[in-house]
Amino acid sequence: MADSGIENLLQEDRLFPPPREFSEQAVGTADLYEEADADYIAYWTRQAKERITWYKEPTEGLDDSNPPFFKWFSDGELNISYNCLDRHLETGGDKVAYHWVGEPGDTRTITYTELSDEVNRFANGLRSLGVVKGDRVAIYMGMVPELPVAMLACARIGAPHSVIFGGFSADSIIDRVNDQGAKVLITCDGAWRRGSVVPLKDNCDRAMEETPTIEHCLVVKRIENDVSMVDGRDIWWHDLVEHQPTECEPEVMNAEDLLYILYTSGTTAKPKGIMHTTGGYLTGAVTTHALVFDIKPDSDVYWCAADIGWVTGHTYIVYGPLANHTTSIMYEGTPDYPDKDRLWSIIEEYGVTIFYTAPTAIRAFMKWGEQYPQRHDLSSLRLLGTVGEPINPSAWMWYHDHIGPQDCPIVDTWWQTETGAIMISPLPGVTATKPGSATKPLPGISASVVDVEGHPVPLGGGGYLTITQPWPAMLRSIYGDDERYVSTYWSRYPGVYFAGDGAKIDEDGYLWILGRVDDVMNVSGHRISTMEVESALVSHPSVAEAAVVGAADELTGQAIAAFVTLVGSFEETDGLLEELRSHVASKIGAIAKPKTIIFTPDLPKTRSGKIMRRLLRDISDNRVLGDVTTLANSEIVQAIADQAEAYRDDD
Ligand code: WTA
Fold first, then answer.
1. Between the CA of residue 30 and those of 23, 374, 537, what are the distances in Å?
2. Which of 79, 412, 472, 613 is the S-S candidate for 283 at Cβ 3.0 to 4.6 Å?
3. CA separation for the pair 622, 394 (Å, rounded)
4. pLDDT score of 124
C-alpha cells in the first residue's frame, strides 16, 4: 500500500444535498454529464458555438494530431473583447459591469457601455503607439478598473497580455518581461494597501533599467503620489486616451492565437509562462462560470474576491463574467481594512448573491471571529465558492454556518493556472457536497487518481491526480519552452496530464485533493498527506490554521512537524499541545500524530495565500532558510525559526 499511492486517513461523512429550490432553478443540470460522457468533444463544441459569438464558427473540435500540443476549434475566428463587450451593448449596455470599490472608500459604477468606451479608447491608444497583433504587453497594476480595461484592449487588438501581480518586486517584473520580450508596460503611479502606498511606478522604473524591449510605460494616475516620468518613454494613461475615439475595430483572431501569458512559479527559480489561447480558453471560461456559479445575468451580483494578478481573476473576474454579461464587484483592497468586516459590509451594501474566495481567507476570517460577519446582513448570498487550496472540512463548515445563509450551497473548485478554468467542482444544483471534497470532474472533464505506476487506484485509495482527456481551456505550452511543457506535465504518465497534486477517491467516487505532491510526507514508509493532518488539527476548536511538514527523522525517515495558529481566545499551553497531538491520533490514527507542534501567530504564505511548506521544512531540518522575498509575510519566518530553535534547546 505504502508504495502504491498516498494513505487515505481522514474520513468525512457529512453530506449536503443541493436544496430543492436551488436545483429547480439551476443553470447546470444532471443531463450535461450524460451528454459529455457520450462525446466530450461534441459537448465542448456545442458550448463553444452556443456561448460564443464567432466571426467564423469552427468546423473542428479537438485536433489531437500532435500530442501534447492539442488545439481546439482551430479553424474558428473570434475576438474576445467583442464577446465581453460589443455583443451586450445593444440590449444591455446600461447594465453594470463592475461595482468598483476603492480601498479608501471611493467607488465607481461602470456600465457595459462605459467599459466598452474605455476599452476602445485605450485600444486605439495602444495602436497609436505601434502595438500590433502578436506584440506582448506586460501589465503591473493594482486592482483598479483600468486593469480589466487594459486586458480587454490588448485582447481587442490581438496583443497577448501578461499580468504581473502588483505585490511582486522589480526583480519579478524583470524576469517576466524579459522572458516574453514585452514591448509595453502598463502600470499605476501606486496602489493602496492597508492605507499605505505601494510604489508601482518606482518598481517599474527600477525594472526598466534591465528590460531592453520595453518601448513605453503607460501610467494610470490612481494615488497622485510623486513619480518620475521619462520623456518619450513614459505616458500618462489619461493623456494617451484623451483624443481617442470610442470605436476601435477588433482584430479577427484565430481560435488558437495567443490571448495571454501568465507566469506561475515552478520548482526551479525560473517561473513558467503559461500560455492560453483564444477560442478554447473563452469556451472554458464562459461555460464553467455559467454552470458552476449558476449565473443569472439579470439578477445576480457576483463577487470573485481574488486579485486579477492570478488566474482566478483572469477567468472569473474578467473573461468569464463579462462574456456572460454579469454584474460583478471589484474591490481594490485587503479584507481587514479599515476593519475586519470590510468584505461583509460590501456584500451587504451591494446585495451580493454569489461570493468566491480562498480557503486561506476563510481561515483568516475564522481566526478573527464570527462577530465580524455577524455585524452585517448577508442574507442576499445564495451561493459560495472556494479555490486555491484544499479546504479543511472545519473551514468549510465555518463558511457554511457563518457566511452562507441556511442551505447556501458551496462549490469547492479545483483547477490551476495551467487548466485555465475550473475542472473539478460540484454543480450546485446537482451535486451533493461533502465538506473538503471538490467532488467530481465537471461535464467534459475526466480525471483519474493513479498510483506511481499510473494505474487507477481503487475507490477508497489515494494517489496522484491526472486529467485523462484534453480540454478546451488547457494551457498550450510554456512560453519559449516546449520541452519544459512536455516534461512537467506529460512525461510522468505518458499520454495524460499530470497535475502535480495528490488526491484520494472515496467510495462514492468523490475526489479529495491532498495538496502538492512535493508536500507529501513519508513516515515509516507511509505516504501521508500534509493536508489530512492539517485538517485534523483545524477540526479542534482551538486551531485556526495549521501547517504540517515532514522533518528528517533517524527512526522513521520523516516525522510529522506541525505549526499551529490558535483562534484568538485560546492560550498556548503545554496542556493544549498534548491535547492537539491526541486529537490528531483520535481523528486519523496514531501514525499521523505530530512529533512536534510549534505555536505561531501566523504561517509563511505566498502572495496568493498558499502555505509555503518548503520553508517550514527548512526550519524543521534546521537548514539555512531559502529565499523568503516572494512571501506575503516574510517576517514571520524568522520568528518561527527562533521558536523552533528554542524548542530544540528545550528537548
Ligand atoms: C491548489 C489556482 C484543493 C492545487 C486556480 C493546484 C486546490 C494549485 C484547489 C493551483 C481546490 C487549487 N482544492 N487544492 N479547490 N484549487 N488548488 O495555479 O494544489 O494558483 O494544483 O491556480 O492550487 O494553483 P494556481
1. 10, 35, 36
2. 472
3. 31
4. 98
Q: What is the model's pLDDT at position 128?
A: 98
pLDDT at 637: 86
Residue 144 alpha carbon to ligand 1 centre in Å: 25
Determine which residue's CA is closest to atom 22 belonging to ligand 1: 416
What angle do helix axes 112-128 and 146-157 make, rounded to 10 degrees? 60
Atom of ligand 1 nearest to the CA of 500: 21
- Across all residues in the chain, what is the average pLDDT? 95
pLDDT at residue 1, as a whole number: 41
Q: Does the CB atom of residue 307 touch ligand 1 within 6 A?
A: no
Asked whether residue 267 carries a pLDDT value surpassing 60, the answer given is no
354-357 vs 383-387, strand pairing mode: parallel
Q: What angle do CA 561, 562, 566 make, to 5 degrees?
A: 160
Instruction: Report pLDDT digits (tens) over 396-411.
Output: 999 999 999 878 999 9
b/e per residue 366-396 (b: at least 16 CB within 10 A): bbbeeebbeeeebebbbbbbbbbbbbbbbbb
Distance 415 CA to ligand 1 centre (A): 5
pLDDT(646) > 90? no
The larger pLDDT score, comparing residue 269 to residue 175, is at: 175
DSSP 257: S
User: Which residue minimizes the CA distance to atom 15 of ligand 1?
Assistant: 414
Give 261's pLDDT tier (boundaries 50, 70, 90): very high
501-532: b or e for each residue (b if 16 or more CB lie within 10 Å)? bbbbbbeeebbbbbbbbebbbebeebbbbbbb
Q: Binning pLDDT at 50, 70 and 90, where does residue 550 land?
A: very high
Atom number in ligand 1 closest to CA 413: 15
Q: Which residue has the higher pLDDT, 411 or 627?
A: 411
CA distances from 62 to 75, 475, 478, 483 (A): 11, 14, 20, 22
**Domains contained in the chain, CATH given:** 540-650 (3.30.300.30)
From 292, 396, 415, give the residue whose CB has the most ligand 1 atoms within 8 Å, as the site to mutate: 415
Q: Strands 462-467, 497-505: parallel, antiparallel or unpaired by DSSP?
A: antiparallel
pTM of the model: 0.94
Which residue, by CA, sits nearest to atom 6 of ligand 1? Answer: 416
What pLDDT is attached to residue 651? 59
Give me ligand 1 centre to Cα 368, in Å: 24
Q: Which atom of ligand 1 is nearest to the CA of 391?
A: 13
* 4 vs 91, higher pLDDT: 91
Above 60 in pLDDT, residue 374? Answer: yes
Is the CB–ligand 1 distance for residue 388 below 6 Å? yes
What are the DSSP calls for 349-369, one per residue? HHT--EEEE-HHHHHHHHHH-
Ligand 1 close to Cβ of residue 392 (< 6 A): no
Whole-angstrom Cα distance, residue 342 to residue 530? 32
Beta carbon of 420 within 6 Å of any ligand 1 atom: no
- Kindly compute the dihedral angle of the four CA atoms of residues 174, 175, 181, 185, in this order, to the nearest 10 degrees: -40
pLDDT for position 2: 41
- Inform me whether the pLDDT recorded for 163 exceeds 50: yes
Ligand 1 pocket, residue 311 CB under 6 Å: yes
